[in-house]
Amino acid sequence: MITQHPEREQILLENVLSALGNPLRLHVVRVLAAGGEHNCSNVLEGVSKSTLTHHWRVLRESGVIWQRPSGRENLLSLRREDLDARFPGLLDVLLEAVNSGASSVAPHGAQPMADARRG
Questions:
Q1: Which of 29, 72, 75, 116 is the right S-S partner for 112, CB 3.0 to 4.6 Å?
Q2: Domain count, the chain
């Protein structure tokens, strides 16, 4: 069972900004912002499972993503509604900066999946 999803009121700006200060995690948010749930093993290629597990934990505990078990996998989705309620416009500004090339979208060694390249 996956725990440690903060309630909406418990999501703190400093935790969200810290989580999104990492280029890999920011890229994950860009992928998830396209909507729907994504299998955790299909968001990025070329990153070890232990590294991904760490990044999912940081994003989950900061309140940026929902993570839920589905069989032998976990599904990830962006907590867009909660983040927009707590910090109106924050995700839009961050995603606009990423999409305009003002930020790195995938760190060295990480390869975006095919549907991430469309966004």
A1: 116
A2: 1
- Domain contains 42: yes
pLDDT of residue 3: 67
**pTM for the structure as a whole:** 0.82
> 24-54 pLDDT, tens per residue?
999 999 999 999 999 988 888 888 989 999 9
pLDDT in tens, 70-97: 998 899 999 999 999 999 999 999 999 8
Q: Is residue 1 part of a domain?
A: no
With respect to residue 34, please indicate whether it lies within any of the assigned structural domains.
yes
Using a CB cutoff of 8 Å and minimum separation of 24, what contacts does 91-96 make?
A: 91/29, 91/33, 94/20, 94/26, 94/29, 95/29, 95/30, 95/33
